[in-house]
Amino acid sequence: MCFLYCNGLMDHIYVCQYGASCTSWYKTPTHFSGTLDAFVKITRNEGVRSLWSGLPPTLVMAVPATVIYFTCYDQLRDLLRYGMGFQGNYIPLVAGGLARLGAVSVISPLELVRTKMQSQKLTYSELRVCIRSSVAQDGWLSLWRGWGPTVLRDVPFSALYWFNYELVKAQLCDQYHVSQATFSISFTAGAISGAVAAIMTLPFDVVKTRRQIQLGEMETLGVPVKNPTSTWHIMRGIWAESGYRGLFAGFLPRVIKVAPACAVMISTYEFGKIFFQKMNLDREQQAC
Q: Which reaction does it catalyse (predicted)?
């Protein structure tokens, strides 16, 4: 009835209607024996460009979410460290978690809007009516449906990610005797911390995926959305069905997509900060 498509930055729910092709760009998948086999077959059958399918709607959501996330992290970290005088390795842990909590809370209604447009193919006028009816029936909090499992996955991930990133970056800087992290140091630290955080939060990602698919199937059947099952209840169900392997399903693909994504993201961000700091310093010196 529906399936969840993950492209490394965000998750997309697509609804299959009347057993037909789910989207204009998605084709019936071949059987894949592994991640590498999937890359080869997709590239061979659909072309290299298909590996970037679904990029435009992803950027619409990912860009504002990332802007809010990184800006909040830097401001919170500096506030805790310099404004309030706190010291210790826990500062990135707290700042990372709070920054992700804020970003998820702001973007969650937009995520719901995007999901409805993808699953029901609504125009903007129809979408406005749909949102109004949803708010009238279930209240304003209905716009944040799915917020809970998203927070349980993303907030611990961000807290662990920034904690490990700052730790590994400091150790690499000491090892190579540099005062400021280079592009390669940021890239390495980002990849390591992203992989560790992805592994440790994988069970929450599995729960979020199951809940998203359940909500998509209920909307497809026209069934009213009932109160969601708690995260711990879903985890117990997965453990009873498949054991600990079920909670860590998709381990290799998640690490393969998250580790390089985190490495590219943080190294580019750090390079951009250094570039603009230097440019601002040069402007100040020229003005003097």
A: glutathione(in) = glutathione(out)
